[in-house]
Write a structure and sequence with these properties.
globular, Thrombin, subunit H, alpha+beta, 3 domains, six-stranded antiparallel barrel, Rossmann fold, 23% strand, seven-stranded mixed sheet, 484 residues
């Protein structure tokens, strides 16, 4: 490890691990996706939302909701097998869509997450064995045909290109000759792929009408389509999520950079076609909007002191890097990067320091290694970070339900000085974007309309709520101004 790496590693790690520790929480549908866990709170059936080693949250009807501070018995079962039995104390109550969402802390025993996962996987396996290939029989015929067409497309071009590439290499063809052929074939594959994915988008809509059908359709897609994309880096990393979460900073780098990645001609072409997916290629237009907003924040900030800007779920912070590369240093700037992945912070910090080196002490970059849940629940942290002129998050609210999005935005605005702004983005609802992430990549996003995003924003202490959009209209944004 180089000297520079140690310095920035210490910066993030030191700051992040100074934040109060909280055990990792897992969304139920992410942790236990194949089976619906059975949760009992006393004698009432509840719907599990998320779970950690020492806590959980769940939904119940208003008539069944336990009061704040009440200790209640908890039983969690998976396919009849008991995964946890103990008691929990209610610490938070919210109303969402006619149900009450309860947050509770375990007061006897603990929830053994690895055991839950093991119970889930064993039960799911036995169900799959019992059903055999009949598990896909509930998939609508039109969608099955679309999956077959996509599988044939990938198998055909993979075999054809691999054989041709081997022949070219054996014949001593130059890299330039291979690239010329690759670019020509890419145009033809692009036209055909667009037809294939358009049909899959259209026929997959009916699968959402029933949870069991949706699961069977997703598994059929992952059986026949997804494995054939193993050689295309963007697709395979998006599916396997090697850093442990979707949309990591490496994925964002793939989308920003036009490098032809992959070890084979077929892999490189499919990598490029993946970059052309609507929510991939439009991250560039989203970045351009962020560049405009950074410049606006600097122009709008009065006084002689530094302009203080925070980025939540900052990832690679590409927009800040590009901004600093062209910045004239007219105002002192202080950037705070907030992310729950210290690897993303390390990656971003190094690039921002390099981009701002010529500006000397006119630019300061601080990294905070913490999760958004800690940001919500830690008043001391909020006080420590306060008084920013501008805070923004471009690609994070897509993973939050409406109530959590509102709490995150509300707490983010507490980091902003009176009269300062916040800007929060979300992927827009569109007919042509759900098949690839949901079915091919198992990448679940909460797409929202502009009105839905506005409705999820807090209003207390906010003087204005204004919707914005990037040039592609693939992303919605809401600008909040804190009351003076």
């Amino acid at each position: 490890m180089s000297k520079d790496q140690k310095q920035y590693s210490e910066l993030q790690g030191g700051v992040g691990r100074a934040v109060h520790f909280r055990t990792e929480r897992f969304r139920s549908r992410a942790l236990l996706g194949e089976l619906s866990p059975e949760l009992w709170v006393g004698d009432a059936r509840a719907r599990l939302y998320d779970v950690s080693m020492n806590g959980l949250s769940f939904y119940v009807p208003p008539s069944e909701a336990p009061g704040d501070g009440l200790e209640v018995p908890i039983r969690l079962l998976l396919d009849g097998e008991e995964g946890f039995r103990g008691s929990a104390r209610v610490v938070r109550t919210d109303v969402e869509g006619g149900l009450v969402k309860i947050g509770a802390t375990i007061v006897s025993g603990f929830i053994d997450i690895p055991r839950l996962v093991s119970l889930h996987d064993n039960a799911a396996f036995e169900r799959s064995v019992s059903a055999g290939s009949r598990r896909y029989s509930s998939v609508p015929a039109d969608y099955s045909a679309s999956v077959h067409a996509a599988s044939v497309f990938l198998a055909h071009w993979s075999r054809l290109l691999d054989e041709r590439e081997r022949r070219l290499v054996d014949d001593g063809a130059s890299p330039e000759a291979v690239l010329r052929l690759e670019l020509r074939l890419e145009e033809q594959m692009r036209r055909e792929w667009r037809e294939v994915r358009a049909r899959a988008n259209e026929t997959s809509r009916v699968c959402y009408e029933d949870a069991a059908t949706l699961l069977a359709a997703k598994r059929l897609t992952e059986l026949l389509v997804t494995p054939q994309l193993r050689v295309a880096p963007l697709w395979w990393d998006a599916y396997t999520k090697p850093l442990g979460y979707p949309g990591d900073f490496r994925m964002m780098t793939y989308m920003y950079e036009s490098d032809r990645r992959g070890d084979t001609m077929f892999g490189r072409i499919m990598h490029q076609l993946g970059r052309e997916e609507r929510l991939a290629w439009t991250v560039t237009s989203r970045k351009e909007l962020m560049l405009e907003q950074l410049a606006r924040a600097i122009r709008a900030t009065q006084g002689e002191g530094p302009v203080r800007i925070a980025s939540l779920a900052s990832g690679p912070a590409r927009e800040i890097q590009e901004f600093l590369e062209r910045y004239d240093g007219s105002r002192r700037l202080e950037f705070t990067l907030i992310d729950q992945d210290d690897r993303a912070l390390s990656y971003a910090y190094e690039r921002l320091i390099r981009a701002s080196a010529r500006l000397g002490d006119r630019v300061r970059v601080t990294c905070l290694f913490t999760s958004f849940r800690q940001l919500i629940g830690n008043p001391e942290l909020l006080e420590q970070l306060g008084n920013h002129d501008f805070i923004y998050s471009a690609g994070f609210f897509d993973y939050l339900d409406a109530a959590t999005a509102s709490r995150v935005a509300e707490n983010c605005m507490k980091l902003v000085r009176p009269g300062g702004r916040g800007l929060f983005g979300n992927a827009a609802v569109s007919d042509d974007v759900h098949w690839v992430p949901e079915f091919v990549l198992d990448w679940r996003l909460t797409l929202r309309t502009r009105d839905e995003l506005v409705a999820a924003m807090p209003t207390k202490g906010i003087s204005s709520v204004e919707p914005l959009a990037d040039a592609s209209d693939a992303w919605h944004f809401v600008e909040l101004t804190r009351s003076a």
